[in-house]
Amino acid sequence: MDPYENLLDKNPYDDGNKRAVTGEIVVVLDVMYDDRGLEFITPMSRALPRGEIHELILTDEPNPREHMGVDRGAVVGFVEIAQGGVTAVGDEVSVGERSLGTLVGFDETHMPNHQNIVLSTDDCRSGADLDIELGTQIRFE
């Protein structure tokens, strides 16, 4: 349940008045799946404190937020947060100089260990297929 569901008529983060969350890639994976069953939590934002490690997943499924989850995905890998802050649906996520996609949801299957952060993209390939390297900087803004 989202306590703000009936109080807000738009995403309060759309104005972009928040600092970027940054980090670095600590694991690069070569994983693809077509029937994962990720389920998004209702809240559209999550605080990511410095030092936490989370998984990045890309999807090219249409309208993932409408369905509140995805089946098809490519795992980029794991990122360690260097500068904490708040990430939200609609944030643009880049790794190095490359755009990875737009944040569309959070899945808590593995909590409290880590969150799955799901990005919508037209280029649904794993971190290994994208030639992402360990230590590459990542940015949510």
Structure description:
- With 141 residues, the chain is mainly beta.
- The chain has one domain (21-140).
- It is 3% helix and 47% strand.
- It has 1 helix and 11 strands; from the N terminus they run E-E-E-E-H-E-E-E-E-E-E-E.
- It has one helix at 64-67; strands at 21-33, 38-39, 45-48, 53-59, 69-70, 73-83, 85-88, 92-95, 98-107, 116-120, 137-140.
- The strands form 3 sheets. It has a 7-stranded mixed beta barrel with strand order 1-6-4-10-9-8-11.
- Strand 8 (92-95) and strand 9 form a beta hairpin.
- The two termini are 25 Å apart.
Summarize the SSE layout with pairings.
Blueprint: E1 21-33, E2 38-39, E3 45-48, E4 53-59, H1 64-67, E5 69-70, E6 73-83, E7 85-88, E8 92-95, E9 98-107, E10 116-120, E11 137-140
Parallel strand pairs: 4-10
Antiparallel strand pairs: 1-6, 1-11, 2-5, 3-7, 4-6, 8-9, 8-11, 9-10
- SS class: mainly beta
H/E element order:
EEEEHEEEEEEE
Spans where pLDDT lies below 50 across 5 or more residues: none
* Gyration radius over CA: 14 Å
Task: Report how far apart the termini are.
Answer: 25 Å
The beta-strand count equals 11
Strand order of the largest sheet: 1-6-4-10-9-8-11
SS summary, helix count: 1
Strand content: over 45%
